[in-house]
Amino acid sequence: MDFNDIQNAWNNEKPENVVLPSNLEKIQSANTPLDKIRKNLKNEFIYQIVSIIFMGTIPLICHFNTQMIFLYYLIYSLFLAVCVYYLVKLYFFFKRLNATTLKTKDSLYETYFDIRLNMELYKTFGFSLTPFIVVYLLGFYFYGLSEKSGLLNHEFTNGQLFGFFAIIVFTVLSMGISLEWWVQKFYGKYAKEIKKVIDELKEE
Questions:
Q1: How far apart are CA 204 and CA 202, in angstroms?
Q2: pTM of the model
Q3: Neighbours of 178 (CB within 10 A)
């Protein structure tokens, strides 16, 4: 085989990992929704941290008595541990997104599935906080009733029991609906834009 034969064989060869210019442009179009996800996730960290700090100051703002302060911070310590666990996971996800460069189909696929996985992680985070929110609301409801009517020394009325159950049902349903809406608005719709690019690449 002479040089010309070798050159012709080289030209006819189709490298597997080379991205065509049109594909590259389409892949990089996914950077816009990805940037929006990064921005929303960064704001999310700020909101979450401010909210956690604010919740830690509630007993001081509301002037709880010593017994209530102890109970509050006992629950708050568990709440804080759950928040830290999930926020650390979301932080590492944010770091991965910042390091992501969409130049190949593989990187686009990996980023999309990472986003979908962490959307579910975010929902799990929200649902894991629901029991704490229920306990806090029930605590405030109970504390308010005891201040007004000396509830600690009396049995619950049917109306008061209904109030407790209503708080639980309303809180759980509200959290479920709110989480779905929040995740779709700030992350889901941008994930769909990235999925649309993936589907377009499949058709080519």
A1: 6
A2: 0.77
A3: 11
Around Cβ 54, how many Cβ atoms within 10 Å?
10
- In whole angstroms, give the CA distance from residue 200 to residue 28: 13
CA pair distance 67, 187, nearest whole angstrom? 42
Which among 122, 120, 143 is positioned nearest to 58, based on CA atoms? 143
Q: Using alpha carbons, select from 146, 99, 93 the residue that is nearest to residue 118.
A: 93
Report the pLDDT value the prediction gives residue 12, as an integer from 0 to 100.
52
Work out the percent of the chain whose per-residue pLDDT is above 70: 78
CB atoms within 10 A of CB 192: 12
Burial class of residue 188 (count of CB atoms within 10 Å of its CB; 0-12, 13-18, 19+): middle
Confidence band of 184 (pLDDT split at 50, 70, 90): very high
